[in-house]
Write a structure and sequence with these properties.
seven-stranded mixed β-sheet; 19 helices; Rossmann fold; 3 domains; eight-stranded mixed β-sheet; single chain; 38% helix; alpha/beta; Nucleotidyltransferase, domain 5; 18% strand
């Protein structure tokens, strides 16, 4: 029999389908959560420390009410899984702590097991510590719950229930029978191992709830992107899944990230926990530092970016398309990476105001199809366009690279060739035997920083012209910059979303060019 309820809670096509399946909205169940939070929980940090936890309008209307109010025909909750994505500083961790305590004590589940999962112990501790603080600040909760900070547990002895912080670093996770599982900052999960291990742990419960709550990431091969993509498809009606709850606050890809209106739309707690002046200051800093733009867009506007910390603004890169090539003298950077993927040679031609670049790439023929299918990298297209040269077999044929370099030397005057000192020792010796000056170029901060800063300066200034090479542009979109405490920088292959060998080769080429007697000196390259 159909139940009557306020139609304002029917907001999507998915809701209409759910109603046709017998689902209904029970405002009492939703208010039960809201009243528990307001009555028993208090903030422990910042300007609201000691004050009751009153849900913000969006937390109630867009998350708590629909998540806990929608019911199935049998009286259990409609939603079994939820994916919530909002920018930083919008109160995610505090809300996770509140939900954890409710599910531990008030959801009517005997022997409830509640887990807060995170990528590492520090992240897992954030939600746990806030929950522990809330318990200790409430006489009613403290008299019922035992907080064991040393083992990151909160125990409800009367109901044989436990809340526990769990990280990917915890060795034993099999056999967990969760009633509620909260994944905090899912984007930080570098592998899907923890997710897959815990995914079906609630199967024996009557109405389990798995909630992933996170800021946007950058890795489109991650479990977080998988869940993000699924959430969008459920939200947009592409996939029908009335047990999955999606909620995403984010700026659109084509929004003006410097607009206050965009900030407000992307941050539901704007003006409360997200301060306008702080966000404006972060935006100004991001405009002055290309390395911080992606961090601002990802953490503050919840946009999925192309890499962890964008070093090279792609719009700046695209303005550097047309080269001059009014000289034949050049310096080369050769990055061979490994034998099973792409290798790069970049020639840097010094001109009056900067450098012109020419790029050359090689890839093993046998691995082209694998990379296209697995990672959607269009190697075959680039090969047809003459941008990449395939070599026979499953590994790079260094003899082909050596021969191509010798042919290029007949066209250009290569002053020197920079090669990673930890790679291609044999090829380096062979090139020296061919009469080339080879510089063994280290990949640490001491070798890379000055050259990387010079590279960055010319990209931003529009004086590093690359000829519009598509492969090099793809690598420019992938590259992540690392920085140490002293302000030294270098490109990071480990953190970059995909291959960056051409960018590394370009930096090495500029490094040896700038270290010649005709240019500025900055010390030993190795």
């Amino acid at each position: 029999m159909a139940r009557e309820f306020d139609s304002k809670w029917i907001r999507t096509d998915a809701d209409k389908i759910a109603v046709s399946h017998g689902c209904w909205f029970d405002e009492y169940s939703a208010m039960h959560v809201k009243n528990f939070i307001a009555r028993f929980l208090r903030h422990s940090k910042g300007e609201w420390a000691g004050q009751p936890f009153e849900l913000q309008a969006w937390q109630w209307d867009q998350l708590i009410a629909p998540l806990f109010g929608w019911m199935r025909d049998d009286g259990t909750r409609r939603y079994r899984r939820a994916y919530v994505e909002v920018p930083k500083k919008n109160g995610k961790s505090t809300l996770c702590s509140a939900i954890s305590l409710y599910m531990l004590m008030m959801d009517g589940e005997p022997g409830a097991e509640v887990y807060n999962a995170a990528a590492d112990r520090d992240q897992a501790s954030i939600v746990f510590n806030e929950a522990a603080n809330m318990v200790e600040a409430s006489m009613a909760l403290a008299s019922r719950l035992d907080v064991l900070r040393s083992t990151k547990r909160i125990v409800y002895t009367k109901e044989s229930a436990v809340y526990r912080a769990l990280s990917a670093e915890v060795p034993t996770k099999e056999g967990i029978n969760w009633h509620c599982l909260i994944f905090d900052e899912l984007h930080a999960q570098r592998t899907r191992e923890l997710w897959d291990t815990l995914a079906y742990g609630g199967a024996a419960r009557r109405q389990p709830l798995s909630l992933a709550i996170t800021t946007a990431g950058y890795d489109r091969h991650s479990i977080c992107w998988e869940q993000h993509d699924y959430a969008l498809k459920v939200r947009d009606g592409i996939i029908e899944d009335d047990a999955f709850f999606p909620l995403i606050y984010a700026a659109a890809d084509d929004d003006d990230w410097k607009s206050e209106q965009v900030w407000r739309a992307a941050n539901p707690s704007y003006g409360v926990t997200v301060k306008a002046d702080s966000l404006a200051a972060d935006c100004r800093e991001a405009q002055q530092s290309p390395g911080k733009e992606n961090a601002f867009r990802r953490y503050r506007l919840n946009q999925w970016t192309e890499q962890d910390v964008r070093w090279i603004p792609i719009e700046k890169w695209d303005t550097c398309e047309i080269p001059y090539f009014n000289t034949t003298e050049c310096f080369a950077g050769l990055d061979l990476a490994n034998t099973i993927d792409i290798s790069a040679l970049v020639l840097a031609f010094p001109v009056e105001d900067g450098y012109d670049l020419r790029s050359f790439f090689w890839v093993p023929q046998e691995n082209v199809k694998l990379r296209e299918v697995r990672d959607r990298v269009p190697y075959a297209v680039w090969i047809r366009e003459g941008l990449i040269k395939p070599t026979e077999g499953t590994g790079i044929d260094y003899a082909v690279i050596r021969n191509d370099i010798r042919e290029l030397a007949e066209q250009y005057h290569m002053r020197s060739i920079a090669i990673d000192r930890w790679n291609a020792t044999q090829l380096a010796q062979e090139l020296q035997g061919d009469g080339f000056e080879v510089v063994m170029f280290g990949q640490g901060y001491s070798s890379m920083s000055a050259a990387a800063k010079e590279f960055e300066r010319h990209v931003i200034g529009g004086t590093l012209r690359h000829g519009g090479n598509k492969v090099l542009r793809w690598m420019a979109s992938n590259v992540v910059r690392e920085q140490d405490a002293a302000g030294n920088i270098k490109p990071s292959k480990a953190k970059s979303a995909e291959k960056i060998d051409g960018i590394v080769a370009a930096i090495m080429a500029i490094g040896v060019a700038s270290a010649t007697p005709a240019g500025p000196q900055w010390g030993v390259l190795v």
